[in-house]
Design a protein that fits this description.
This protein is α+β, with helices and mostly antiparallel strands. It folds into 2 domains: 106 residues, 2-Layer Sandwich (Alpha-Beta Plaits); 160 residues, Pseudouridine synthase I, catalytic domain, C-terminal subdomain (Alpha-Beta Plaits, 2-Layer Sandwich). The protein is 27% helix and 27% strand. The longest helix has 13 residues. The chain starts with a strand and ends with a strand.
Amino acid sequence: MPRYLLTLEYDGKAFVGWQRQCADVGLSVQGVLEEAIFRFCGQKTTLHGAGRTDRGVHALAQRAHVDLDLSRFLANEGGRRSPEILLRDALNSHLRGHLLTVREVVAVAPDFHARFSAKSRSYLYRVVISPHRPILREGRVWHRPLTSHAMARLGARGLIERLDFLREQSSRMLGSRDFSAFRAAGCQSPSGVKDMRSIDIELFDDELRFTFCASGFLYRQVRLMVGSLVALGEGRLTEEVFDEFLSLSPSTSAENLRRIRRLVPPPAPVCGLYFAEVEY
């Protein structure tokens, strides 16, 4: 049966997360898409996503694959549309009313897997430093108020004044290392070691955008890293303590790991996090 790879964009506020849930829990991205597929072609399917985003996490280019037989619909089309365009248009028609869209559909090999064929994943995190609420971006960014106290400590533009410092500190996270300090309870990964390929911090007017690319991520890792970097930039976390976060290894004792985790600042709120890209 043909296999298709979908590129998805969605607003995380509308969903309980990627993974299908019981009906009384709320709408999931996977569940809404599978229902749209069933309404289109009557086929019960299972979508396989590249990553399981949590409740509230947005996506710019989430990927998922599905196996579908579209031969009957293609015959009716008479060659007017390719199977990829037909599937994209049909699903988007059934997704009206949901903050979810199918951006692109491509045919892939039968052994392709949206999750296991991925070489790397990227996440974006957006932080706004402003004296007022960013109304048109509310629910899509983390707002750090630019108070008189922050300006007195950090400068006229607050955390933005320390952009070079943030880039310098974040560069220390690059490479293969144990990120267990940035691992939330409930993480199912057998190891805290991940390969961080790149970290970019860019400034767009009053907005800092953190982009992380890695072989994979631990549960809530990005939010914990951003929370620590922002605390470091604002002076609420010392470089000496941050050093401890980066000093872990698989041989670190459980007692020392617990001690270090207690020092990690709270994770950045979910509203600013985006599943940005997958590389295959």
